[in-house]
Structures are given as C-alpha cells and as structure tokens.
Amino acid sequence: MTWSRGNMADGEEPEKKRRRVEELAEKMAVDSGHGGNARDWDGRWNHVQKFLERPGPFTHPDFEPSTESLHFLLETCKILVIGAGGLGCELLKNLALTGFRQIHVIDMDTIDVSNLNRQFLFRSKDVGRPKADVAADFINRRIPGCNVVPYFKKIQDFDESFYRQFHIIVCGLDSIIARRWMNGMLMSLLIYEDGVLDPSSIIPLIDGGTEGFKGNARVILPGMTACIDCTLELYPPQINFPMCTIASMPRLPEHCIEYVRVLQWPKEKPFGDVPLDGDNPEHIKWVFQKSQERASEFNITGVTYRLTQGVVKRIIPAVASTNAVIAAACATEVFKIASSAYVPLNNYLVFNDVDGLYTYTFEAERKENCTACSQVPQDLKFAPSATLQDILEYLTENASLQMKSPAITATIDGKNRTLYLQTVASIEERTRPNLCKTLKELGLTDGQELAVADVTTPQTMLFKLHFTS
Amino acid sequence: IDAQLWGDHGQEALENAHVCLINATATGTEILKNLVLPGIGAFTIVDGHKVTGEDNRAQAATELLQELNSDVSGNFVEESPDKLLDNDPEFFHRFSLVIGVQLIESTCLRLAGVLWNAGVPFLVCKTYGLVGYMRLAVKEHTVVESHPDNALEDLRLDQPFAELKNHIQSYDLDNMDKKDHSHTPWIIVVAKYLEKWYNEHNYQLPKNYKEKEAFRQLIREGILKNENGVAEDEENFEEAIKNVNTALNPTKIPSTVQDILNAEGWKNITAQTPAFWVMARAVKEFVENEGEGKLPVRGTIPDMIADSEKFINLQNVYREKAMQDASVVSKHVESLLQSVGKVCVYKSKKKCKNAAFLRVVRCRSLADECSVELVNKDEITSCMDNPDSEMVLYLMLRSVDRFFQQHSRYPGVYNYQVEEDIGKLKLCVNSLLQEYGLNVNVKDDYIHEFCRYGANAIKMITHQFVPFNNTFIYNAMSQTSATFQL
User: From the CA of A5, how many Å to the nearest CA of chain B?
Assistant: First the structure.
C-alpha cells in the first residue's frame, strides 16, 4: 500500500503552490457540468432545503414548509456582520456556507500579524490592509454567488437609515461600549403606536463574545427580550490598576509595565511626540527595558517581553476553537430566525471548555427600568447642594449606567446650556469650573430634564432631576 | 499569544503532535482548522471519497488546510479506513490522536478496538441535522496542568509552615504607624487575628457562619480610628474581612488528587512506568513524609493592597517554601528512577507547582459501551426520566446507525422516503431498546425529526481536544448540551 505525502511545506515553489490552491478552490466551487445557473449546481442546497421544506415536530409554531424560504435566504435576506476578527471570520464563513448571500460587514481595523493564527481569512501578505475588505474578498472568491459588502469604518459612522435595511444583525465585537452603542441604535429604530410596539420595526440582534476558553451567545429582540444594558452587571469589571499602586506601590510585573506606559512614556517621549504603538517592536523594547528597571527597584520579578506586549496592547488571549463554537451558535440562530424553522435561543448561552465541555442556557430577564430599552425615564436624585461632579461620578460609576465620558446639557432660562463636556478639549476647559459648582448655583431646578450624551449610546439619554432635602 | 493560555510546554506538546483525521467532511476539516491555526505539528487525512472529477477529497482538504499555516506538515491517504484496517492496522499507531468523523458504526467499532489496544486516544464525531455528538475513548489520559479557573489559594493559614510562622511573627500590628498598618497584606492581618481568636477559643478555627462572622467582627475592630473615634479607610482590612470565608478553609488534598496518589495500578514503579505516575508516586512519598500529610506548597499568592516591600517579602516566603518542597519531590523522583535503573533529566519543578491540579481521565471503551452486558443502563434510564434529555438524541444516533446497517442508507434522504422511513426508524429504535433491555420511552417526535434531517449535516460545532468523559451531545435546536459517561 502506498500513500502520498502531500506535504506542501517542501517541494513546490510558492508561486506554483499558490496557483494550484487557487485552481483547486475554483474547481471545488464551480461544477462545470451544470448548465443554466452555474452558481447553483445540483444538490448544492440540499442540506438546507431539508430544514426549509419539510415539516417537523420541533419547528417554530409559525413555520410553514415552503420552497420559497430558500429563495428568501439566498437572494433577499440581508445580514449585517459587525466585526471581521476572530468571531467575524467564523461568522462570515458560516453564514456564507449556509446560503446567505447578501452579507455586509463592518470593521474599523487593519490586519495585524498577531491575528493570523485564528483569523483565517487573512494571510501574511494581507497585513496592513482593512480586515473588512480582505474578508469580503476571500469569501466572495471562495463561495460563488456570495456577495459580501465590506465597510472599513466605525459603527458610529452610520445612522438609522443604514441599519434599517437589514433583516438581522450579528455582532462579533471585542468591546462592551460598541455593543451598547449598537444596542441603543436598534432601540432607536423601534416604532411604538399608541404604546404598542410595531413588530416590523424590530431587527433581531445576535451577539457573540469570547475570552480565552469562555464565550457567550445571545439573541436580543429589541423591545421584547433582555437587551445588552439589561444585563450590564453580567459583564466582568474591566481590570484597571489604581493610580497609587502604579505610581508608588507596585507589586506585580504588570504594575511596572503600566507605570512605564502611562507615566514614563509621556514624560520621556523617547521617540519624539508620538503615541506608544503596541505594534512597533522598538517601542515595546523600550517599554520592556524600562519596566525591568522599575521592577528591579522593587525586587519584582516576572517582567518579560511577551507580558510587556500583552499589557501594552491589552491583549486578551484568544483561542481559535472558542470563536468557532460561539460563531457556530450565532450562525445557527441567524438561520433559525431567517427561516423561522426553529424556535430561536431564548436567550443566553454560556460556554466554557476549560474543564471538559460546559454550556449553560438561560433566559436573561428584562430590567424594568433599563436605561436602554425600557421607556421609563431615568431619575437623578440629588440635593441642591450637590455638585455637578457628584452627578458626573454617579453617571460613570453606577453599575447600570457605566458611562465613559458623559456630556451633560440642560435647558436653563430658556437656553440650552452645555454644563460639562469632556471630549472636546476647548469645551472641557471652559466647562470645567462647573464641576465644583452646586446644582443650585448652576441654576438647575427640581423636576428639570438633563440631557446626557455618551459613547455608550447613539441617542441622548434624558434624566429627570429630583431635589432631595 | 495563545501560548499564554496553555503555556510554553503546552505549545511544545501541540507542536509535537500528529493528528489523524478520518473523513474530510465539513465537520472534520473544521476541527482540523482549529488545530492547524494554533500550530499542531502534523496532520494526516484519511479519506477515500472523491470531490469532483478526479480530485480526491483527502488531497484537496490537505492542501487547503496546509495553506492556513505553513509551519504545519500535512499529509493525506486516499484510502477508506476499512481498507487500512484490513491491510495495515498498525498504520494508526503512530498518531497522538485519531479523530473519526461520520464513520459508520461497524468501521467505528473496528477502529476503536485497534486504537484502544494501542493506547491511542480516539475521538468520534458525528453531526446529524442539528445534533452534534462527540465521544472520547482513551484508556487513560493524564493532565498535569489542568488550569482550573477558580481554584482556591494555597495559603496554609490553618497550618502555617515554620518560615510563614516566623514571618507573621515579625509583624506587630499594635505598634505600627498608620501607613504601615494600612499597607499590611491581608494574609498577615488574618493570621494575626487568628492568633487572638485561638487564645479565646481553645485553638479551634472559626467553623460555622456565626463564628466566621464573629471573627470578621474581631478584625473590623482592629481598624484604626481617628481622633474622633471614626474608623479610618483601611482597604487592606476590608480585604481581610472579605477573604475570611475562603482563607480559613482547612488545607487538604483535593479528592481528585487523592485518587491519583492512591491509584492501584501504579503502586510499583518499573522502568516502563510513565513519567506522570513516577511523579505521582514521588508526590505521595512527599505527602507521607516531609509534607506531613500535605501537598507541596503551591507558592503563589493573589495580589492584594500592600506596599511593595511587604508584599514581595510575603510572596517570597511562599515562593521559597514552594521551591524547597519541589526539590524534595525531585529527590524522591530521582531515587525512584534510580531504583529501577533509570537516570532522567526532569522538569519536575513545574509539575510540583501544580500538584493540586493533577488530573486523570479514564474513559470506557466503545466496545464496553456497546456491549449488552456492560452497557451503562443506569445512566441511560435515569437520564431518560426526562424524555427530552439530550440522552434521547444519543439513542436516536445509535438507532440511525442501526438503520444504516439494515438499509445501507440513512433515513429520509429523499422526500418520498420520509413517511415510510419514520416507521422503519421506529423499528430500529425499538430493537435497540429491546436488545439492551432499556425500559425507556423515545418520543415519536424525535424519530420524525431524525428522518427529517436526511443525514445531512449542517456544521454546528467544533471543539478542541479536551478530556471530557466521555460522551458529549449538543442540541442546536435548544442550544443546550450534556455530558454523559457511557
């Protein structure tokens, strides 16, 4: 018996090898023998059709088997994928192979060499190019008929008219802020008539997240089920080291690295007036050396180059398979919702494979006074002698608000006044003195409305101020 | 970066592994993708099926997978596994792991027999409609670093070793200036107040909620007060109070480790004994002698509010003790090896740090699972008390295998077959239940559902090789899963 050594690592020249792989992909993609629509060869959608055209005991109560579902899936259904990274690559692959063809993808990043070990739509020649573009290219070429439209942009660059065109939105993000923004955007699309929600204004949001060996997938029907903000407390607190530890009492190697990153770099400007770039090996080398010096001052061991890079880049270790599992769960839900073939996940799945394999599924509940999805106006209860700073701290520290840099405006004496805004330096400087002023001094009255804007929500949030004695 | 999760020697193990995949289906290639991307050493695909025209599926898959990571060496064999089993069963002995995807029952059992005897781990995967199934069959799989998420710290506050005792003694909380008092590590705070408690409670640890609450109150009273009698802000004391619950847990050896240390099979060390068991034996000897009933000290402490010097000094006390214990264990290892005429360069230090995390997974063979005498009737019938338990999906998969055996095809492949096949599949279910003497009810709904799938698999799930024991079922309809020991 003989067996072939298909070891591509030796033997063939790279160019020849690349062409061969491309030809292979093409041959696998198109069946030459079928006339008419060369894209859909015989039996191509066999597997999907069985779910769409056959009745069954576990289907959604509203499901009706029909040959038209396949057409909807292939030609009409429009899906938006947010993120073309670890989860995004998996999602695009899964959705495209399932049959979805109208897929749009947004990602604001470019490809980094550290992405290559799991974001498999990218190769080393793609480093530096936008993730969305490269991902779309790869999928469109490998899966004939698929039409992925990329956007090398931030989600905040689009408004309601853009998002309204999609049937389903799937998120593969690495930021809670972005998730909340997306959540808020879909809430703002909801139409209520006489207090009753119009179901056609609902765009389902399927959200996946991973961290190492852990992950979760959830289905959000805006206005109907628990939203991102309803369950904000479920998200683990982000680890930020207190300044006093960093500045004067380091104990861990991470503290030493943070010291160099946050204090020493801006002070010493080793490469001129440039921000610290985690991808620049010269920068990392400098931080590494300085961190080692600081560590030895305090007899702290454990500063390594790899740790340095991890802390500077805020890297959370990622595993290819966790992304695969969560993306698979999300893609399954997209399919279920698009086809009405099965009851969607209700509504939160937790996954952990550190020890064996563990999943837990439960129904996250809506929060009665959720800041994002309940229609309940939010109250602020403060004494008139409280300062604007007090309100600011409440907005950022309260567990269900967790704002990042809220901008507060109010109508005082008939005029719209910005009380405090952090994100524009000149306005910040001008309004900073307001922070120490009391609410009474600022001219605010009991029952007055305050409008708060923040990066966590696309719409301004309205609060009602109640004076306590 | 992933190596941060499984460490440098985890990465090394990965790079030395050679995995065999049988059947390059969607599921199979998906699994391999997740092994190739992080850098498995080599893979070999065994597949006799053709794709289009002349191209063999094994070759096509190998080339495309290879392209994902040029450091991985990919091979293929254009042959059905049955042929290989006929002509060269020892072919499979070379692999660190064999993954069999969409195998028919007879091939699966044959292969399982060969791999079991050769000690090669076998992972069986099936996706059927919206159901995923994985079965791990390995006689014994040892895990040195199980990286548990929420392991309790090893602080030894209930039985402090000599060096820790001395270190605690060097603190005098009642005569410190405020800055030092507020920056004393909570471990020291708890230890000091424990001494006070012992004096008043006959040297007994606080045991129940009431006593622990009283102990917390004792600590709380130790918080410094300003000139007006108001308590100062002492975060380290708050940490001490918060940690009372876990810090006073009696030091003991976890049951999983006890089982390993007392394992019958490896009582006598020979020249062939695998490294893991030599280490286990050495740890046991440590426990029975120098350790005085305890494992080697782990040596790590959590971060806590403290000034740098106090924290580092305390950390070093634990670290040095851990290193000391580790070298004692190393000496035991050396003498054990010497006694059987072996000399070995050993990475024992790393393993000692994780003595509490040693794990062994032993799975039953497929042969046992499928034998009428040894089938795990109890597990199956008790799960089926809930007729919608994932166990019913397992029974359906077995029934579908039976169907294939009888009809050389899967149920419901073509629309016109669905109706009739439901009846035929039901017969298979009943004959399966009868043969194994399983008094359970399989709802007709499931039989219908499995005919609906028509054998086509929508890839739903893919996993890294993890030692679950031993059957994992995933239900994509409800997005639930379960693990069974069959």
Answer: 5
